[in-house]
Amino acid sequence: MVVELLTMEVAPEHHEMWLAAQEAVWTRFLEQQPGYERSEIWVDAENEGLVHVVIWWRTREDWKRITPEQVEAVDARLGPLYREPVARELRVVG
How far apart are CA 90 and CA 55, in angstroms? Predict the structure, then answer.
């Protein structure tokens, strides 16, 4: 199991609209991908302007099957709600 952690800035007053767009665009896309397990969106308790998207994958290979072109196309569907993420990879060990 591997976790993709994306952190981005989303103003608190845009949370509701941004969350709806994430659900409609990215979550629907991810649900169709082999190896996708689940995802959650967390708001940072110390800085409500930071949002963390946590995505669980069965394997790193499953995650990396998504091409940069696919990512770009899905991101484009977010339009003005797109936020540039800082990405990290985490391994589940327990």
Answer: 10
Tokens representing residue 36 in the block: 């996708």
Q: What integer pLDDT is reported at residue 94 of this predicted model?
A: 85
How much is the pTM?
0.93
pLDDT band of 73, cuts 50, 70, 90: very high
- At 71, the amino acid letter reads V
β-pair type (50-57, 86-91): unpaired
Tell me the one-letter amino acid at 16.
Answer: E
> Which of 39, 47, 42 shows the shortest CA–CA distance to 11?
47
The type of residue at 5 is L
What tokens were used for 18?
């941004």
pLDDT tens column, 8-22: 999 999 999 999 999
What distances in angstroms separate CA 20 from CA 24, 27, 54, one per listed residue? 6, 10, 16
Q: What is the mean pLDDT of residues 26-30?
A: 97
For tokens 């949002």, what's the residue?
Answer: 51
